[in-house]
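Sat 14:20. Reprocessing the chain from the morning session after the first attempt stalled halfway. Input below, unchanged.
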Amino acid sequence: MPKFHVVIPARHGASRLPGKPLEDVGGRPLVVRVWEAACASGAASVIVATDDERIRAACVAAGVDVAMTGAAHASGTDRIAEVARTRGWAAGEIVVNLQGDEPLMPPAAVAGVAAALADRPATDIASAVTPVVSLAEFLDPNCVKALRALDGRALYFSRAPVPWPRDRVADGRPAAFEGAWRHVGLYAYRVGSLLRFAALAPTVLEETERLEQLRALEHGMSLHLIVLAEPPPGGVDTPQDLARVRAAWARRAAG
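Finished this time. Tokens:
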């Protein structure tokens, strides 16, 4: 198992579910449940990064390592980069970005992206994909599709249905999705690559698709995609998602 850190960015002002890091899941705040999952991955350290005093206080009460960061960060990646700088991590160390609304993310997936990066010294970033499982998922712009080379290198990411099945289209609509990959928003960075990425300006493709990872590809950074054996349960973006996660947690607790 390679040495790696996990940083969990958490903010209070989510547009669809304000205050969601503090929502109760099985008797503890959502962000603490994410921290517990990360701790089970074998990480050398797990840190919640936030600019909100309410989140900081909840983490401290639960014994969670928490770092207060600036309030002006445009993304969680920028928040993680600040933590990497302030903690003094070396350029070659590995840090995993685990979103603060993913309490059901399998610890093995967190460890998996870290191991994939450790095994590839020339790679900047590692992330993950799972197979697209339905035509509805393939057509959903909220499902980010990934194009992946035979050796696992990321070629492109899109909200559009790609790869386009040219010979299986009816009335301008794809009728097949086999071979398509869904991107899982879990990233492992070398610290040097993370700091370089955070210092880059947003790019045209990134702003067109509204996908931050395209900035890395446009600047020639290498991104490797592992295939997860099972799709991880979805995170929490809406009240409906929160109800689903609470129900899943209750089932898990009941054994």
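The mean pLDDT is 93.
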